[in-house]
Amino acid sequence: MAKIKQRPQIIETIADFVTAMGGTGATARFLGVGDSYVSNMLARGYLPTGFHMRAFAEIRRQGWAFAPSFFGLEGDHAEVVMALVPVALPDHSVSPGE
Fold first, then answer.
1. Over the stretch 19-46, which tens digit does the pLDDT of each residue have?
2. Rg (CA), the chain
3. How far apart are alpha carbons 4 and 57 in whole angstroms?
C-alpha cells in the first residue's frame, strides 16, 4: 500500500500546495490544466502568477496557513498581506491578521 503524504501545516512551496490539494491530479482539476502542467510547476518550483488569486482563495477557504513567499512576496508586500490575513511567519508562528 502506498504511503499517503500528510497535508502540510503551512503552504510554503508549490509542493506543499499540491500535497494539500490532494495530489497532482486534484490540483490539475482545480486549476483547469493537465497533470503535466502541474508536474512542470513542481519541477520549476513555483505557481504561475495567473493562478495566484485562485490558489489564495482556496487556501483561505480551507483555512490553511501560508507563507507570503509562496506567492513571491517579500518585504513591504509581505507585510501588507500579513496585515490583512493570518499568514505563516518565517518562524512558523501565525500573525493575527487585522
1. 999 999 999 999 999 999 999 999 999 9
2. 14
3. 25
Q: Residue 87's Cα: distance from chain center in Å? A: 11
Give the whole-number percent of the chain exceeding pLDDT 70.
79
C-alpha cell at 36: 503535466
Q: Torsion angle of alpha carbons 14, 15, 18, 19, nearest 10°?
A: -150
Q: What's the pTM?
A: 0.78
Beta strands in 1-98 (DSSP E): 10-11, 65-66
DSSP 15: H
Confirm if 64 and 55 have CB atoms less than 8 A apart.
Answer: no
